[in-house]
Structures
1.
Amino acid sequence: MLTAYPPSNPNRDETGQPKTAVVGGKTRQRISSQCIKRTWRLSGPMSHLCDQFSMRTRGLGSEVLKLLTANGTLPKVAMDRAKKIAEKFGKIDPKRTPDHSEMVVFGHEEWGAAMALAQVLGQEQRDPTEAELDALPRSTQSIDCALFGRMRAADPSLNVDAAVSVSHCLTVNQANIESDFWTSVDDLKQADENADGGAGGMGDVEFGSGIYYTYVDIDVAQLLENLSGDSGRARDAIGALIKAMATTTPGGHRATFGHQGRASYLRAEIGDSSGNLFCPAFETPINSMTKAIEKLRATSENISRVYSLERHIAELSVPEETGTLSQVIQAAVQTVEG
């Protein structure tokens, strides 16, 4: 996928600068795969599936505690019961009891079961049984876990292998990071002829622009396995993911730069994939969207010829006015049998 970003800082590092990477000896602006996957997960196209999503948090214990105390459980007793429930999912942080020491990915089934148990304990004013506690951790078919995987340090048997691999998004052009120095005007000072002429505030924000390349691999067989063979849910997940990819961008400094945009080129290789084409296609930077599309397409076809790949291609190209997003999605979801 190729997406043009105007001057922007959609994903910044710890210093506030746009993230970068050096490829072919040239600095490229970068959006991390973690950032872009979260953007897709929380996007509008995925929202109709969100009731089947996981909860990623350290704070399950606090939510259980709130539910118990709301039902009249004494604070000390509620804390003890909340801790017992939370401990079934991972190590408790002694400084933040009853919350966890690390992020835990709760399947929607697990989250619902924990809240349901807390509700019962509050209503019946009793301790949980060992059987009730042992039944809380369980495998999940949360759609975001089926797509992007889950790692459960406390119980590796509950891990989920990701069906989707996502590259870091890199500009095909060389990145030139610039700084926007800004000042704000104090309205009252401006109206007072005796006030000093200085700004009410000032600062700076770094930015860059470019054509971002993104590579995504969807393992349909793994996705079906993660969803226990439910082809309907697999199709819904793939369709929503591709729409999110093409139509959403990360929100970093969005109000400052207004960088919301859509993909200019999207290519689906169904069957044998030519793989991540960034280095062979863009090791030498390219500054034009039209040239980037030509280079990406030509590189993919060369790899297909050399390796005798068997695949079907579906693509949309805004500059060439060919293809549609719905056609690409339809071609992709047809790979799901059933």
2.
Amino acid sequence: MSTVVLAYSGGLDTSVILTWLREEKGLDVIAFVADVGQNEDLEAVVAKAETHGAVKTVVEDLRDPFVEEYVYPLVMAHASYEGTYLLGTAAARPIIAKRQVEIALQEGADAVAHGSTGKGNDQIRFELAYRALAPQLEVIAPWREWDYQSRDDLEAYAREHRIPVSSKSYSIDRNLLHVSFEGQELEDPWAEPGEGTYSLCRPIEKTPEEPEYLEIEFERGRPRRVNGEELAPAALLERLNAVGGRHGVGRVDIVENRAIGIKVRGVYETPGGTLLHAAHRAVESLCVDREVVHWKEEIMPRIANLVYNGHWFSPEAELFRKAVETTQTKVNGTARLKLHKGSMMVVGRKAPEGLYHRRLASFNEAFSHEDSTGFIRISGLRLGLRQWN
């Protein structure tokens, strides 16, 4: 090997890894910085990479494709891992890995590298994507190779090599879909999260006293307008993050089962994603046939598990996404939400071409109730068979 493309963030792990790849492996390192909405000074990240030996730094704005091609499909599928986690980190890793592989092939690199630890999910997500997209590339996972065992070890290495790093109280991952917090007091499942775990969402006591109403409009299952204003994908999610966060909506505190088998507690803030999921369900309820809705609910946990466990580019995940996409052709309409003090309620929904017909649903309209007699008799036929002699 001579050249490696490193998924680089400028944090402690990847800053140390850049130097380690260069000094211990003797490799030329191309630092790839993906902008997925982490809200950081990317110019400073680039300067840091180049100062510490990157032969080239590639920065790419992936915010719109991240939301359009990765977040929206999960919203349309109503995908949530273990019923709560809206897959904020898991959704971002595939697009980062995909572009990293493309850059490696363009640059004639021999390998790709990431900064994920040996006890987390991201190592699996990155490496399954690499294998699916370019199995000929070597994969370097320093946390599984070197002798360092902790972040304290890395901080000592950084001091020795004069690598400036900021000390964070928590392990934080941020993108347009969410912010996650792990570590510190959160390692005790009984401890209440500290003030440092608030980023997108306000504490309830600091939210507005008056409720706010919000309208989200969908076309073919994808959100396109907020309060009548058409917005590009990244701008739309940013808008919803601001509104939802202002009212403290979208914050969860969970213990999840990681892919490698351990349980980890984390705090997740996903205000915009929470609003999108609720609004999409509301519009879809008017537009999609009952049996299709029920089928989607059956496959949702499978889709969520595939994404969580790093199988975004697997044949079955692609099949599920295409199948879900076909259910969305008539999901055109608007949901109205009411946000107040950490709560979010759907208070209205409309779909001009939906399957909801007020005449059929109304108690005041004619309906042949007698028709239900035969339906119930046939539906219950098998239930009485055990009582027959």
3.
Amino acid sequence: MGLLLITSQVFFMIDSINCRGYKLRFNRTLIMGILNVTPDSFYDGGCYDKVELAVEQAKRMRSDGADIIDVGGESTRPGSKPVSAEEEIKRVKPVLELLVEEVDAPISIDTYKPTVAEKALSLGAHMINDVTGLSNPDMRRVAASYNAPVVIMHMKGTPRNMQDNPVYVDVVSEIKIFLEERVSLALKDGVNDIIIDPGIGFGKTLEHNITILRRLQDFKSIGYPLLVGPSRKSFIGALTGLPVHDRLEGTLAAVSIAVMNGADIVRVHDVKACRRVIQVVDAVRRKTL
């Protein structure tokens, strides 16, 4: 455990977590590389829906500096429709089987379905990234039984309706309360290694997302590593007027702000560019010279 000083209060901060054979250390900002094996994800849908292409991309991201590979078999873009657990497993199973053998890095399964998470962990995946914040108690049971780390993310509504006029009185305070409650439930159910994520773009307006980035330090008092995922999202498009495939510079700006304001992990598509940016920001924030 490390110490983190914010204003006049001292908080205990976890400086590493166990990841089923790996150890994630937070002496520098870590990168989670996004690998969507879906036909309809908002940026790379259909790009890696063939096993060999997905594995090649995972290896490329690892070479470019990814510390974690996050594999998703269902799009959670705004307006997306859910797929069955059977279909999701069909998409991720052959990819996971190869990744755990051929990529020397923790493999995360991006799912909110306990049956998918359990299958992935049984195949050798190392952690769970749940956009519903472990809302299903069976997901907490699965994570605890496999001693797997979890990412607890905040989302207002569901992917299909989350952008239908989301309203908060105080977006940061409300997300913080949600995360604290879900962390408490996870600990009670035997989940030991936890990462929190305020859920940029998941049931938030442009103003909400900007406020979250500006006030990221508020989440540090929860006492767990903080993940932020701004990569190529619509708030960047709203600010720049640019389509998803032309949002790299905006993403790099958002990543820089997130890291400077306390992010311990960033979840991104463009690993090489983000790694180069983070090296500079970490030198300032964490004094990693």
4.
Amino acid sequence: MRVGIKYGSRLGGVILSVILVNYNNGTAIASCLSTIFRYLSPRSGEYEVLVVDNSSTDNSRQLLHEGFPGLNLIENPKNVGFSRAVNQAFRRSRGKYILLLNPDMTVLPESVNKMTGFMDDHPQVGLLLPKLLNPDGTLQLSCRTFYDFPILFFRKTPLGKMFPNHRVIRRHLMMDWNHEKAREVDWGLGACMLLRRAAISGNDLLDERFFLYFEDVDLCFRLKKEGWKVIYYPEAVMVHAHMRHSSRGWISRAKWEHLKSLIKFFGKHRRFKEPVSRNNDSDLSC
């Protein structure tokens, strides 16, 4: 399906920059982009969409060129990793807010408008996370507490599958709190994040030491250390077809990259848990 690029009102500056990184997810990213252009509204102000293709070998580039003429597309000659690709787009972007989306996301009506509106009303929020649903409509547990040794012990060993309802896992996955209420959290899945540009210091959005995985944990960790709030906002809802490549099999490229990023994260921050602002249901006055 051929989709024309719409940019909304051109009065004033760019309000929103949408960034996606693609690697061999042609069908998924085409579907995601279709929902973006269908539901982003001119009343949201001017917006832009930037896609970085990390040298896909499937039909991704053909789908992007033919289906989305005029798309702001960066085509890398090799796979430079997720973080570096995001930074490429971030340096080109102009928006007050940055929406990071994975190709396996489906944008729903009013979801982005609600998120930017919340950020406008809460100037101390650096990063906003929507409520994510699985394709079957069930809740996806997308928020997490920061890692400590017990969490690593259960999540990164077979014990997690042996005891899926252990209190350590339930605490980490935040399974026992009301997901219909906005609240501050430690971090959330990087599948969909709305960031305030003013909260990002320097020219890089993500730390390029993380080729893949843990860049979302690191980003939330850094923002909270600098005094910004990370908020889960269930009024905005999107659908995430979570692929979870790192959970497949015992040995894989994804698992290896996950392990390397885990080691880099703790090597960088030198501790498991940082005494940053804690989860608080009521602390949303900002």
